[in-house]
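Input record, target 12 of the design panel.
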């Protein structure tokens, strides 16, 4: 079967890995990448498909209804993976209206055009942050949404828009909520590449608040595997958690990365590599999730933390100048 897939935000971290995975799994499918190339996106991320006759990059903004309407009118699109989003939690406190415009309004523009074009699958990539945090009870897909920052509020609003098309029109949608994703090519506004970049330059890892907040980390290929599993087996109108079994406090993450990167560093010297800075307005301590629903479709987390972080560190060591240097006055985001 031949198929045309639209990936929004395909020059970003997760979107580019998804495009590469689609090209390997479905070599005869056409892949269209729409991205407006913000600071955390780069066409360098798509080197694996450059020159392929089945891959097309179209610069554009999902918030532009005229562009999006024209796109669906001129391209026969069967499947949409909507990855495009503003994702930096810190920035969402500084400019919440931008996050709502891109993440919620942009999703509304895109799904309306997809609905009118009678797309066969619309997969919305959301986040575990829509649940808010929980110290003990893990979230399943029926847990209430309690977003605690403008970023997660905008993603929750986008989910509501997507689900409304299922409820009113039975438009074939799926929603994913994943743990924190890491791996090669991630922009260093995110915590793992940020720490690696700072350590590489003999600078301290900046840690917000106490550093006791913990995160579940999932290697990027496991996430793209989950997306492809849902494309083929996902039940329409359903939400799926994509959770990781690996959880680590941010302060422990910094200590582990220093030990991996700095030769012969003593336990006592580890504290010298950390600088505690002012916390963000709202800090979520944990986002535990249950992924049993996805497991019933056959998906399992394959890449261990040990293997995933080894691959990630190796990539950043081999590509030290891939992203421009981070500014020194931006604090680490644990999300």
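The sequence produced for target 12 reads:
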């Amino acid at each position: 079967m031949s198929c045309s897939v639209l990936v929004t935000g395909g020059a970003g971290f997760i979107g580019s890995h998804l495009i590469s995975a689609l090209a390997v799994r479905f070599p005869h499918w056409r892949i269209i990448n729409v991205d407006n190339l913000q600071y955390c996106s780069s066409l360098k991320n798509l080197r694996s498909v450059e020159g392929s006759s089945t891959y097309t990059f179209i610069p554009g903004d999902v918030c532009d209804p005229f562009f999006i309407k024209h796109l669906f009118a001129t391209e026969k699109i069967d499947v949409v993976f909507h990855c495009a989003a503003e994702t930096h939690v810190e920035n969402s406190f500084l400019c919440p209206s931008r996050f709502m415009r891109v993440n919620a309004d942009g999703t509304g523009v895109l799904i309306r055009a997809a609905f009118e074009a009678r797309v066969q699958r619309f997969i919305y990539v959301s986040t575990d942050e829509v649940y808010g945090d929980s110290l003990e009870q893990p979230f399943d897909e029926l847990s209430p949404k309690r977003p605690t920052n403008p970023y997660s509020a905008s993603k929750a609003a986008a989910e509501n828009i997507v689900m409304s098309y299922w409820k009113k029109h039975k438009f074939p949608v799926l929603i994913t909520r994943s743990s924190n994703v890491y791996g090669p090519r991630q922009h260093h506004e995110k915590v793992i590449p940020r720490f690696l970049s700072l350590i590489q330059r003999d600078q301290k890892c900046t840690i917000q608040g106490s550093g006791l907040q913990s995160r579940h980390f999932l290697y990027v290929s496991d996430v793209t595997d989950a997306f492809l599993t849902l494309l083929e087996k996902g039940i329409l109108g359903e939400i799926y958690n994509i959770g990781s079994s690996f959880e680590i406090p941010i302060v422990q993450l910094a200590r582990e990365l220093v030990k991996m990167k700095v030769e012969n560093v003593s336990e006592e010297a580890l504290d010298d590599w950390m600088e505690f800075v002012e916390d963000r307005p709202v800090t979520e301590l944990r986002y535990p999730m249950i992924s049993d629903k996805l497991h019933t479709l056959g998906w399992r987390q394959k890449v261990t933390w040990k293997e995933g972080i080894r691959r990630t560190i190796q990539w950043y060591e081999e590509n030290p100048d891939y992203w421009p240097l981070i500014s020194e006055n931006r604090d680490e985001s644990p999300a």
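Confidence is low (pLDDT under 50) at residues 328-333.
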